[in-house]
Amino acid sequence: MRIALIAHDKKKDEMVKFVYKYQDILAKHNIFTTGTTGLRIMENTNLKVNRLKSGPLGGDQEIGAMVANEQLDMVIFLRDPLTAQAHEPDINALLRLCDVYQIPLATNTKTAEYFIKEI
User: pLDDT tens for residues 39-59?
Assistant: First the structure.
């Protein structure tokens, strides 16, 4: 599977813990990340990832383009629902594309765990 991992700043530690816990499963798949999330994952796990740009610098749009071009099978996007994001339109576009192209999208760790355990 081709899986995208994205986390807002306040959710990056949570993403690292999630990836660390499931790195044996994730290691069997192609992982794509936005910039800083990917860096944090690589610093804290043995997982190889394909890093794109940071979310605010176009990474969310790059992931969205991959969704639209059927290059991803799942997106795990740990969003911070309590903090306004300067690039909110990009985030909303990515979420919309996941719906349009019927790509499974987890926005919290409980849902992400359900998805990971099913692959």
Answer: 999 999 999 999 999 988 999
Could you give the angle at which helices 109-118 and 12-21 cross, rounded to 10 degrees?
Answer: 20
Catalytic residue selected from 13, 24, 60, 90: 60
Q: Are 31 and 63 in contact (CB under 8 A)?
A: no
pLDDT in tens, 86-114: 778 888 999 999 999 999 999 999 999 99
Determine whether 73 is an active site residue. Answer: no
Residue 67 CA to residue 102 CA, distance in Å, equals 9
Does the pTM surpass 0.85? The reply is yes
Radius of gyration of the chain (CA): 13
Query: What's the rounded Cα separation, in Å, for the pair 84 and 5?
Result: 20
Distance CA 52, CA 82 (A): 25
